[in-house]
């Protein structure tokens, strides 16, 4: 770094470490690309608007099997490894589960030596940083690039022009589109190192640059200096910021432009790499699979067809067939407000050629399937439906848990399932055991290795070998010590970073995830109020001490859940300063939940809250991380909870609440919320306290809207599930009072979580969707 060791700052050490680790990966990185090229291997192109990789350096050290020697080298230099990596920014290039899943899958593909590129956008600012002011969420910009991006390589030589706007002439000419503007997509590559370091893939993120000729010289000469720079400003805006919401209600033009920019640059890159070694585009499906992470990159079909037809002279039908063979689409949500639709007028304005191709695809579906396709419309009510587009341009469509896939088939795309039975399949989500056990929980990872030997890192089913030890009191005690260690680590961090005290002997009960009404953080905080009231009513009883930890961000415009954040903080302020209950109940809500915070919270948790309204959480992946780290789950029959419970055993899982079918039926009953509240004295007491301003004495009416909504509407069935949740929580207390029993349940959870490895999930994609053979 050009700095004398004695004068080096932590940042210098971190940059040096980044360059050193990247250097260590370089031979493998080049070899992997060379082998893919020279052996003509098929490769996967994972297109995603979001990636949440977490901090890169410790993960790279672990996967290169260098963590211990790196740490020892730093010791020799009188530098603390943990301090070095603690300064690393956590790239927040995603909102939540979908982006984190993409990162786990990239890591597993590299570990399995599956040739792959991740493609995304290099947002200058990631997801906002969250602060609290008077309990309210305040958003600040995330400046993750201020000390550079030292683990990545910018590749100015790899750039593509991405066209926008303009006019199309009739559909049969090969160069029908005369775009108004072109932006340049420039590549930034991050190595994705597989476990063991034998295979290294690439995460390629695009940033937008103005094309060299974008400054409008005519306007400039005419004295319109600002107008002349308009297009340049537009370019710089495009990759400036990640959309912080999971609906498309704001800034629609910019969002669609981002999606097209990602898709076009990536598909051009896929074709470019193919044409480096091949001539016959009809063989594209033998060499490339493209996976669309939700509909955000669903322009990939039209874009691939456009490039094949307009630039390479392929016929439309051949191009469309090729696209279908190459593409796959993963659906991550059934929420109607998150299903993308783009106004036809906007699409015509920005992407006239793509609109033309979509119209032709629509005609083609009807020509091929006749009246069986009467219910299929890619365009309806002046909107392009991106879900239908993604389905008809893909040979496989998958949901992310068994229940979710069932609902995708039955409720979301029944008309499309009927056209091509078998196109829709399930691939239950998974998580990488390298980051979520080896990195996040070294104490438990060491105990596992001592007990069953190494190898579980790449063969997570081997955790089953822990099961006999669940009967061994010595092992259970050692297991308990790992949990304690994780709690102490968390306590130190909470104290140092946030000045928060953590009572480490208490039951640690954690709900961390994006705020959404369907995830029902509200149910959790209402129960917490109820617990507080009951402790106060019977202070002599033997209450199990609990710490309720919350973490998560709300979309800036989602006012209903911003109220819930404020309520949690308001309740916390009152409860935490109540001397009568302090030793038995505490609320902690550290701001700015992200991957790094997850790595600290999850290993320390005793209880994992997975309490969504049944039928609404597509899968969840936090649920898997907690169970793998020996937390027990309290949860509804939703998403992957269903499969986790089947694997770990019903007796090792705290189930409560309405099923997905019951949810639908309950919503049909008029006055269901009022009826549920009237039947539950504890819930009435809670709502009365909130309505009276117990937690907002300076503004008693602060939560009147929220309470009113619960009595009169309650779409997410918080009231209907309250009593069941309470009974389940009482069972949690009972089980926790018997530490050996609790630990036996926890160890059994760990031992039976092997199938939730992202290695299993990625193998499934390779076999059933990508048609990529396993490495020998
Ligand atoms: C859409 C338009 C504009 C801006 C953002 C979006 C958008 C962003 C993220 C829409 C949806 C987004 O994510 C959906 C998501 O994260 N789904 C989650 O996916 C996880 C991985 O499969 C599942 O585990 C979660 O259950 C599911 O909620």
TrEMBL record:
SUPFAM superfamilies: UDP-Glycosyltransferase/glycogen phosphorylase
Entry-linked Pfam families: Phosphorylase
Cofactor(s) required for function per UniProt: pyridoxal 5'-phosphate
Record keywords, A-Z: Carbohydrate metabolism, Glycosyltransferase, Pyridoxal phosphate, Transferase
Gene3D superfamilies with a match to the protein in the record: Glycogen Phosphorylase B
TM ranges: none
InterPro entries named in the record: Glycg_phsphrylas (IPR011833), Glyco_trans_35 (IPR000811), Pyridoxal_P_attach_site (IPR035090)
Reaction catalysis annotation: [(1->4)-alpha-D-glucosyl](n) + phosphate = [(1->4)-alpha-D-glucosyl](n-1) + alpha-D-glucose 1-phosphate
Enzyme Commission designation: 2.4.1.1
Keyword Transferase: yes
Protein's job: Phosphorylase is an important allosteric enzyme in carbohydrate metabolism. Enzymes from different sources differ in their regulatory mechanisms and in their natural substrates. However, all known phosphorylases share catalytic and structural properties. Allosteric enzyme that catalyzes the rate-limiting step in glycogen catabolism, the phosphorolytic cleavage of glycogen to produce glucose-1-phosphate, and plays a central role in maintaining cellular and organismal glucose homeostasis.
NCBIfam families in alphabetical order: P_ylase
Sequence similarity: Belongs to the glycogen phosphorylase family.
PANTHER family: GLYCOGEN PHOSPHORYLASE, GLYCOGEN PHOSPHORYLASE, LIVER FORM
Identification of the protein by name: Alpha-1,4 glucan phosphorylase
Organism whose genome encodes this protein: Nesterenkonia aethiopica
Organism ancestry: Bacteria, Bacillati, Actinomycetota, Actinomycetes, Micrococcales
């Amino acid at each position: 770094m050009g700095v004398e060791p004695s004068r080096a700052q932590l940042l210098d050490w971190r940059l040096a470490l980044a360059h050193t680790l990247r250097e260590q990966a370089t031979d493998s990185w080049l070899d992997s690309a060379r082998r893919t090229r020279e052996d003509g291997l098929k490769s996967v192109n994972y297109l995603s608007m979001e990636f949440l990789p977490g901090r890169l350096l410790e993960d790279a050290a672990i996967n290169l099997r260098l963590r211990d020697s790196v740490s020892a080298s730093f010791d020799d230099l009188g530098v603390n490894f943990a301090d070095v990596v603690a300064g690393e920014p956590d790239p927040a290039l995603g909102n939540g589960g979908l982006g984190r899943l993409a990162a786990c899958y990239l890591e597993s593909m590299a570990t399995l030596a599956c040739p792959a590129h991740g493609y995304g956008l290099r947002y200058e600012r990631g997801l906002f940083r969250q602060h609290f002011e008077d309990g309210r969420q305040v958003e600040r910009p995330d400046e993750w690039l201020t000390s550079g991006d030292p683990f990545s390589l910018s590749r100015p030589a790899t750039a593509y022009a991405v066209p926008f706007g303009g006019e199309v002439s009739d559909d049969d000419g090969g160069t029908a589109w005369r775009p108004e503007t072109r932006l340049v997509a420039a590549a930034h590559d991050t190595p994705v190192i597989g476990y063991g370091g034998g295979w290294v893939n690439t995460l390629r993120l695009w940033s937008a640059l103005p094309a060299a000729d974008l400054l409008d010289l005519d306007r400039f000469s005419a004295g319109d200096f600002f107008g002349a720079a308009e297009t340049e400003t537009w370019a710089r805006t495009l990759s400036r910021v990640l959309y912080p919401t999971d609906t498309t209600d704001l800034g629609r033009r910019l969002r669609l432009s981002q999606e097209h920019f990602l898709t076009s640059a990536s598909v051009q890159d896929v074709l470019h790499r193919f044409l480096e070694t091949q001539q016959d585009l009809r063989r594209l499906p033998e060499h490339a699979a493209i996976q669309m992470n939700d509909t955000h990159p669903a322009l990939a079909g039209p874009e691939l067809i456009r490039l094949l037809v307009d630039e390479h002279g392929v016929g439309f039908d051949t191009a469309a067939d090729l696209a279908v063979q190459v593409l796959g689409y993963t659906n991550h949500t059934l929420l109607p407000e998150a299903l993308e639709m783009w106004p036809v007028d906007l699409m015509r304005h920005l992407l006239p050629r793509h609109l033309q191709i979509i119209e032709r695809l629509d005609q083609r579906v009807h020509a091929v399937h006749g009246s069986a396709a009467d219910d299929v419309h890619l365009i309806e009510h002046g909107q392009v439906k991106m879900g239908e587009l993604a389905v008809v341009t893909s040979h496989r469509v998958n949901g992310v848990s068994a229940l979710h896939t069932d609902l995708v088939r039955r409720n979301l795309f029944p008309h499309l399932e009927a056209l091509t039975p078998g196109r829709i399949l399930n691939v239950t989500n998974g998580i990488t055991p390298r980051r979520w056990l080896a990195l996040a929980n070294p104490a438990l990872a060491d105990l596992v290795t001592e007990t069953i030997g190494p190898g579980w890192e790449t063969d997570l089913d081997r955790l089953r070998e822990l099961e006999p030890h669940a009967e061994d009191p010595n092992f259970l005690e050692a297991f308990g010590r790992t949990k304690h260690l994780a709690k102490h680590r968390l306590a130190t961090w909470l104290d140092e970073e946030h000045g928060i005290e953590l009572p480490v002997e208490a039951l640690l009960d954690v709900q961390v995830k994006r705020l959404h009404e369907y995830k029902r953080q509200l149910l959790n905080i209402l129960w917490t109020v109820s617990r507080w009231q009951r402790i106060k009513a019977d202070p002599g009883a033997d209450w199990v001490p609990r710490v309720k930890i919350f973490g998560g961000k709300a979309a800036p415009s989602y006012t209903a859940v911003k109220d819930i954040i404020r309520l949690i903080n308001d309740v916390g302020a009152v409860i935490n300063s109540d001397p009568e209950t302090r030793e038995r109940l505490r609320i902690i809500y550290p701001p700015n939940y992200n991957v790094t915070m997850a790595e600290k919270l999850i290993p320390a948790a005793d209880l994992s809250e997975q309490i969504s309204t049944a039928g609404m959480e597509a899968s969840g992946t936090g649920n898997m991380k907690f169970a793998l780290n020996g937390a027990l789950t309290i949860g509804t029959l939703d998403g992957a909870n269903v499969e986790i419970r089947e694997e770990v055993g019903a007796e090792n899982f705290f189930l409560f609440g309405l099923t997905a079918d019951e949810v639908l039926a309950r919503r049909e009953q008029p006055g269901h919320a009022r009826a549920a509240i009237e039947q539950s004295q504890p819930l009435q007491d809670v709502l009365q306290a909130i309505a009276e301003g117990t937690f907002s004495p300076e503004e008693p009416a602060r939560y009147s809207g929220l309470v009113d909504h619960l009595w009169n509407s309650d779409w997410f069935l918080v009231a209907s599930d309250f009593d069941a949740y309470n009974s389940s929580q009482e069972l949690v207390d009972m089980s926790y009072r018997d530490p050996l029993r609790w630990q036996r349940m926890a160890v059994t959870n760990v031992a039976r979580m092997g199938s939730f490895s992202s290695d299993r999930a990625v193998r499934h994609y390779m076999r059933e969707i990508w048609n990529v053979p396993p490495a020998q």
